[in-house]
Amino acid sequence: MITLQDIKQDTRVRTYIQKADESLVALGFTEHSFAHVGLVAAKSKYILETLGYSPREVELVQIAGYLHDIGNLVNRIDHSQSGGVMAFRILDNLGMDPVEVAEIVTAIGNHDEGTGKPVSDLAAALILADKSDVRRSRVRNRDIASFDIHDRVNYSVTQSELTINESKTAVQLKLHIETEYSSVMDYFEIFLNRMTMCRRAAERLGLQFELIINDQKLV
After folding, report:
1. What does the domain layout of the chain look like in residue ranges?
2. Which of 179, 133, 174, 172 is nearest to 152 (CA)?
3. What is the DSSP code string of 92-151?
4. More confident call, 89 vs 188
5. Tens digits of residue pLDDT in 134-165
6. 3-state secondary structure (DSSP) of residue 208
7. 214 vs 29, 131, 156, 161, 172, CA distance in Å?
8. What CA–CA distance (Å, rounded) separates 215 from 127?
9. For residue 2, what pLDDT is reported?
10. Separation of alpha carbons 91 and 3, rounded Å
11. Which CATH number, 1.10.3210.10, 3.40.630.30, 3.40.718.10, 3.30.420.140, labels domain 4-217?
């Protein structure tokens, strides 16, 4: 069976992730390289593992998390769909079981808020893991004076934690924001669609989605 470790060691995968991120550097986007995909894979694992999914389902969602942004190699627009096609080709060539390929491709193809929906449990976990990765270290522009709203919002987040409560009824995204760089309203201006998607993803997993900023519950 194909594992996350197999995917991480695949030269094609490493090249595509690196080159995709280089395109986003040119476009002025925040970091989408190995740190991001590794964190998304880890958060996806945490979600399904905590909810009691099988070890194989946990492995598959990690693979989806690691591969989810390779479509940026083609273009930022519709990168989830192109990424799904690229992942299909890689996994199919590796000889992965078609049912498992389908699960991963579906999750990748539905992770973006533009067109994606939490159509499966793996897709829901990937959505929550991806959309919760907001942090200062993703900002590559070091000139604060030239920050756009995405830079300001990410730079303002000094702590970010995604947790499922003990009773497994809610998933919480807890953020600490330094408001001298960005207001809470700035956060909502660019992340409202993402938070709506997170709410629907949480519901798919039988959870409520809660957003807590500076110890204040907002959603």
Report:
1. 4-217
2. 179
3. HHTT--HHHHHHHHHHHHT-STTT----SHHHHHHHHHHHT---GGG-----GGG--HHH
4. 89
5. 999 999 988 888 888 889 999 999 999 999 99
6. strand
7. 25, 18, 11, 12, 13
8. 23
9. 97
10. 11
11. 1.10.3210.10
State the pTM of this model: 0.95
As a residue count, the chain comes to: 219
**216: its two tokens:** 């204040």
- Contact residues for 8 (Cβ-Cβ < 8 A; gap 6+): 14, 66
Six token digits for residue 136 = 């200062």
d(CA 56, CA 58): 5
Left (φ > 0), alpha (ψ -120 to 50) or beta: where does 127 sit?
Answer: alpha
pLDDT digits (tens, 9 = 90+) for 168-192: 999 999 999 998 998 888 888 888 8
Q: Which two tokens stand for residue 88?
A: 């299909």
Per-residue pLDDT band for 55 (boundaries 50, 70, 90) equals: very high
The tokens for 15 are 């090249």
